[in-house]
Amino acid sequence: MAWLTGHLTVLVFWAFAGVAIVSAAMCVTRRNPVASALWLVVTLFQLAGLFVVLDAQFLAVLQVLVYAGAIMVLFLFVIMLLNLGQGGPHDFKGVIGLGVGAVLAVLLLLQLSVLRHLEPPAAIALPPGTMAAQQAHDGLVGTVARPLFDAYLVPFEITSLLLLAAIVGAVVLAMRKL
Amino acid sequence: MLLGPSLAVSAVLFTIGVTGVLVRRNAIVIFMCVELMLNAVNLTFVAFAQRLGVAGQIFVFFVMAVAAAEAAVGLAIILAIYRHRETVDLGNINLLKG
After folding, report:
1. Domains and their CATH numbers in chain A
2. Whole-prediction pTM
3. What is the least distance, in Å, from the CA of A155 to any CA of chain B?
4. How close A95 gets to chain B, by Cα (Å)?
């Protein structure tokens, strides 16, 4: 049974990951900004699914609420406000730009591919299943909330300052002309 | 258990985001590609949190807060530029070009 569950988890993981990669590629290649935004929403939902597979259920909910909900609505709202519904003729760079972009992307992928074999040192790695056990003990929200309001209280409060600065900045920028 | 595959998926998503920033000219689409890169890094954090403790998940919170602030300010900048230049094509926005 455990063997079957393990294989099912891997299957679900790759299903979400495959759709996420395909829709991210669609997001980059669509000429229409609205289509790009909607493909990005699909990617964000798949990432929420991956978070569930990786024992981060509360973050998956936040991902859907904050990213796929609030942030993407903001993007679509600006696209609508600026009437950018159809892509322009110069949306992609020329042949040279595309070539340089492709070369740099392949280079970056090669450099990042070493991550595949990364393993945390055995001395600091938790035994498998620790996170699930902790969630069963503290609850899904409590697992994240307890350290957030304990060890990470100061960064949490500074985040509120950051959001305040962003609100003021957005209002000031929206009011005057550059 | 799924650490290696997660990091591989995250690397691919990050590269797709970088490619988008490099080859697109529409400021809003470039912005969405930056969000995609932030999400790829979030996946890395969550994958490591499974093995190294819940701190990684806490950092995803902060990344989300920064992403929200960045989206608000960035879109306000794009709005201001659009009102001035009537375009969001980065090829036409060359005020700082030497």
Report:
1. 1-87 (1.20.120.1200), 128-178 (no CATH)
2. 0.92
3. 8
4. 10
